[in-house]
């Protein structure tokens, strides 16, 4: 029976000095992904990830983009090497940004810049000393919830901010209230680990930052979803581009429903969860939540071998990975025509389509992969088709981004990610 | 210097070991406190507070078992740094 897969993306605390170094040395696409992030940020994030210091890397303005870049790089390496697609994506807390990015909803450079800015805001909140956050192990989540309610009734502000497993939660709120609740839960046999340099994520204390973040989020373009993302807020699938900005602003003030997310996967028959991040953080959480889902981390060498082994049982699936040529043909057909000049349509759309089909026929005959030249030719012909069909510029951008994303050709064909430049080039 | 450092370390640890007066030679790991979130924050605190770099070769639990051991590690690191 075919595995049903979910990809998981870790959140804060999953960084360490040396993160992603193994993948970076092994795969060109990982190196290119880090280099693009360096260009976006204007400083050497890769060096910080590999050499530290830990204190510098741990600043949220660095760790947030670092975790995103590691996760996306890991995902891209996987897609290139194994390429069997997941049914669902989900990211824990900060990891939701990587989930949206890998789903195709947020462009990678936008996500890098956004998380640097989000991290900078986070550092400011943390430095201001407004609120605190702690992890609580060993007390059932409903009891933690109950203890929070008692505190709230006493006029104190503290709430459950992450439902990680039946016996691990995070609490966030007013600093004194968090400490008081830690003491009460310790008396019930719990173990509290305060996150000293952290902002009080996923509670109402983050509302001012959520307002600032929403402004930034509202300015970004959002693409089509290739895979649904199970969101932290309600543990339900989301695949609507227009909902992403609002969701990520609300995400800052609402608890992470990870326990319910794992149950959703179980209910949907997921058998394999692959963590796309620098180290095993979420795999143990999978096991603590549900039985029957194997959890492995693609960023960890030993796990990577196991994943390769498991998926090698399905050699047929990899062949269905789209190429630029097959995707161009599909998009040429899928876009609605708005041009009723039949002659022009025949001359440009039909002829261009036949030329792309010709490339595909010759490739199928020889069994070869398309060359870079053939890919460019197909994309240029597609541009003629979309222009003739009068597909709006914005929609064309979406399609090109999606084709590049699905085929993992970000760096070979990056000129096609900016259609204005492309139009200039062709004309 | 060494005593001063111990006080700083103790103050940091008191946020984690609330309602428990830690002795300088008390084994903190024996108190059932060895999760990675704590370990990472401890290393970060030591690096930042004492301006030292703790390498992977120093990442031996024994170096962090007691306040005394941590203070000794900091002293050793500081001396090496000054020689460079």
Structure, explained:
Chain A is an alpha/beta fold and 427 residues long. Chain A folds into three domains: 5-126 and 204-317, Malonyl-Coenzyme A Acyl Carrier Protein, domain 2 (3-Layer(aba) Sandwich); 132-194, Malonyl-CoA ACP transacylase, ACP-binding (Alpha-Beta Plaits, 2-Layer Sandwich); 322-426. Chain A contains 20 helices and eleven strands. Chain A has helices spanning 21-26, 28-41, 45-51, 54-57, 60-81, 95-103, 108-128, 141-153, 175-187, 207-218, 244-250, 258-267, 283-289, 301-311, 315-318, 324-334, 342-366, 372-388, 393-407, 419-426; strands spanning 5-9, 88-91, 132-137, 158-165, 168-173, 191-194, 229-230, 237-238, 256-257, 272-275, 294-297. In chain A, helix 7 runs antiparallel to helix 10, helix 8 crosses helix 9 (175-187) and helix 16 (324-334) packs parallel to helix 18. Chain A is elongated and about 80 Å long. Chain A starts with a strand and ends with a helix. In chain A, 48% of the residues are buried. The model of chain A has no long low-confidence stretch (mean pLDDT 94). Chain B is an all-alpha fold and 84 residues long. Chain B has helices at 2-14, 36-50, 67-83. Chain B starts with a helix and ends with a helix. The mean pLDDT of chain B is 87. The A-B interface holds A 13, 16-18, 52-55, 58, 135, 137, 179, 182-183, 186, 191, 193-197 and B 15-16, 18-19, 32-33, 35, 37-38, 40-41, 43-45, 47-48, 53-54, 56.
- Give a quick account of the main beta sheet of chain B: strands, pairing sense, barrel closure: none
Distance between the termini of chain B: 20 Å
Question: Order of SSEs of chain B, N→C?
Answer: HHH
Extended strand count of chain B: 0
Instruction: Supply the helix-strand structural class of chain B.
Output: mainly alpha
What form of chain B results from the Cα inertia axes? Answer: globular
Largest contact between chains: A-B, 21 and 19 residues
What is the fold-level CATH name, i.e. the topology of the largest domain in chain A?
Malonyl-Coenzyme A Acyl Carrier Protein, domain 2
* Share in β-strands of chain B: under 5%
Tally of helical segments of chain B:
3
Instruction: Give me the CATH superfamily of the largest domain in chain A.
Output: Malonyl-Coenzyme A Acyl Carrier Protein, domain 2
Number of helices of chain A: 20
On the 0 to 100 scale, the average pLDDT of chain A is 94
Please describe the biggest sheet of chain A, giving its number of strands, its sense, and whether it closes into a barrel.
Answer: 5 strands, mixed
Helix content of chain B: 40-55%
Intertermini distance of chain A? 51 Å
Quickly give the structural class of chain A: alpha/beta
The overall number of domains of chain A is 3
Mean pLDDT of chain B: 87
Output the CATH class name of the largest domain in chain A.
Answer: Alpha Beta
